Amino acid sequence: MFTQIVTFLIFFAVIGCILYGRRLIKTEKVDAVFGNPERSKGGTHWIIVGSSFLLLVWLYYSWDIAKAFYPKSANELCQVAKVNESLLGLKYQFPIVEREFKSTSIIKKENKNLLLLYNEIQNSEEINPEEKLVLSKFLNDTNKLIPLLTNENLIETKTKIKIDEITNKIKILSAKFKDPNYPNETEESKSERLKAIQEQGGWGSSGTAIENTVEVPLVPETSRGLKFDAAAKELKLINDEFFKLRNHNPQFKNNIQKIKEQIKIYRNGLEDTREVASNYAKNILKIARRIEYASIYPPTALNEMKNAIIEFDQVQKAQQGGLRYIDIFLFPAGTIVSSGPSCSEQGSGRWLPKPSDTLNKFSLMLKPSVGYKNVPLLWFEMMDVSQIFGFLLPDWIADVMPGEYPVHTKDGKIKENFKSNVLKFVTGEFKLFKIPVPVGHIWDSFLRVFLGLVFGIIIGVPLGLFMGLNRFAKGFFDPLIELYRPVPPLAWAPLIISVLGIDNTGKVFLLFMVSLSIMIISARAGASGTQLSKIHAAHSLGASKRQILRHVIFPNSLPEILTGIRVAVGMCWGTLVAAEFLAGTTGIGFVENVAKKYFQYEVIWITIFIMGMLGLLFDVTLRKIIDKTIPWRGKG
Amino acid sequence: MTDLISQDLNMIFKTPKGETVHALKDLNFTLKKGELLTVLGPSGCGKTTLLNIAAGFIKPTSGNLILNNKEIDGPGVERGMVFQQGALFEWLTVAENVNFGLRMKKKDPAETQRKVDEWLDIVGLKGFGNTPTYQLSGGMQQRVALARCLINDPDLILMDEPLGALDALTREKMQSLVLKIWKETGKTIILITHSVEEALLLGERLYVMAPRPGRIHKEYHLPFASMGLTDDLREIKKNKEFSEKREEILTMIWNMEEEIMGKDI
Description:
The complex is a heterodimer.
Chain A: H1 2-27, H2 44-61, H3 64-69, H4 73-91, H5 102-123, H6 129-143, H7 145-150, H8 157-178, H9 187-200, H10 223-244, H11 250-269, H12 275-293, H13 303-320, H14 322-330, E1 334-339, E2 342-347, H15 348-351, H16 355-366, E3 379-384, H17 385-392, H18 396-399, H19 418-427, E4 434-439, H20 441-469, H21 471-484, H22 489-500, H23 504-528, H24 532-540, H25 545-582, H26 588-597, H27 601-629
Antiparallel strand pairs in A: 1-2, 3-4
Chain B: E1 4-14, E2 20-31, E3 36-40, H1 47-55, E4 62-67, E5 70-71, E6 79-82, H2 94-98, H3 100-104, H4 109-122, H5 138-150, E7 156-160, H6 168-185, E8 188-192, H7 196-202, E9 205-210, E10 215-221, H8 224-230, H9 233-238, H10 240-264
Parallel strand pairs in B: 3-8, 3-9, 6-7, 7-8
Antiparallel strand pairs in B: 1-2, 1-4, 4-5, 9-10
């Protein structure tokens, strides 16, 4: 319902905005000049058209429009797919989907194989002429098997009757299929079916679980679906029956038995050293067996059946009715397919999740109790302040305190003393009061970027300024930085992660490396770009060296430094997500990586969206900060 | 405060190519307290070098420059400098720029504020204290630069083409301002300029310098600066003597330039 409304709204918004845009162009004073940049200004209505168009493409290609307007269509198409699946084996026998008869292509293939083997045997230097003679005879005999199968006169009456039977069954099914009451479901099976429908749920993800549920309901929900389902079942039986059938006449049976025995005897009679010849004989036997099991029939023997199948195919297509058009127009770039016990979306509807499903899953994942892999996306946890103390204070404070740690007494009791109490304090084993602390995948990713960036700034900016002002510093640190900076950050990731671990330490260090080089380079550019006259002015106004650094060179470098931070944030964000792909237990990149393993396309898209939003948030925040802190930029 | 005395001042630069440039050769002069000296000359005659030595940014190769009976050694607050482009700190407001020197010396904030107000009033920027400097026009920026320099109460003010980047009208106003400040404070001022008119108008004394090696070519004692304190500057420009002097100096500089060009060709 919601999707329907949205679809209509978008549709009318697009049309309305286009009309408005056209009218605006007409009323505008037309400037004859092409290339006037003024022409690109404004145009909110075109933004609406653009974004609506994007949303419409999403709705369409994710088959959400089909789901909104024809919620039963997937179930019906599933039944159609079942019929197609059952029919496929039979269809492949004839030049309906394929170019030639299955028999023809098998014969072609095996003749080719026999010829190849013949040439190989003749040219082989490892077997003697005597063996060549025997093997050639085997090849010849095998080749002579084929006409025994394709001869119209040799086909047994028994086989003919069977073929006619199968053909008839298909014809009867075609006739029955046209009957609106088919398959004449009994009350009992109907109630069973209705119960199954209740249990199977609707099309698409249910919104009750992150894991993928059955995509397309299998049990037919409509009478049309029921028809196809029943036909598919019957077809399956017919199909099985046909494939059990073999066109083996007594002459063929006799000949193939003879070949098998001869080859067996020949191989047994060979000495162990004649392994090559034995292998050739074995290969010939393999071809003979393939011919035995293939469905090879005389050229016209199956004509009736072919016509019956074509007729059935036409009937079932006609019976699909409007469903065919829904399939063509509302299921672009793919359709519903059936494979064994389940139906699934195949094509764009599979990898492009429906907006409604995605929203459902997103809101589900946002619930702290659900989250992803038992970790919420973004939530808070009550944490005792003592733990923060324990984290911040190093444990060696207790070690350097006077006295010794308590030793247990002969009663087996331990008496606390000053030193052990200090240890408790620095390890955070006490209670104070609780404060909320953010937790979750998003927070973890954010914290990693933040820490990496902060460390990069703390070390990079002073070092960069120093390098911008001092020849020694520049010369000394330049080789170091220029050696590691051009290496793609991800190339460092495996090394750093294996040394520092898959948790925060490794990732923060990796991001620190990324931001450090950027911060050094930008701070250096800022410092060396300071106008000498400003430094002269500060000198003659009586500022000390330290004051010049603090009040002239630093603020003068600030635009470069802040731009550097903006670049570094982008780089860090990209690196982090990829690093989380590599290894880790939390983080947005981790979520996407796990979702990929289980083909949870909704989750993948949600993580992509979250990453985009966070990246945008970082950038916008920094842009705001830049505008606020350095309004003089570019105006000096 | 005593005079500024230059004794056999020599400045020799080495270019990266290994050539030696004699930027100043045997400069000897004495500038009395409260005198306004303008320095004129073609490019490369060592005007700015002289000023940089006076400011203490560079050390002369030989000879020395004495102020307050002390050889100039490094920059100091007793010698204020005004630069061509103002060299203001664009991240600070007008008031913060003006009080920069006092803040760096950690002077009493109330006293500083009083001085800032006073100086902003003198340079005609009353009420602009909280304006960011990047919003000011070129002329206003130079007023801030003047105030920033003068608030430190220097003995010697060095001006390196301070009005060079201004439009004609603003320039005239600023010339009056310089004269007014000179009169009111009685500071010793060295002003470098490219404009012959400006040099004549402002200079109580005028040095025309010549290049290769940089030296004082001719010295003038002029009455126009004193006249400018009372009269309209434009009236002075109409003065016959003024025109004669202007033509004389222009011809002199033209000849120098031609000499250089001839050498090059």
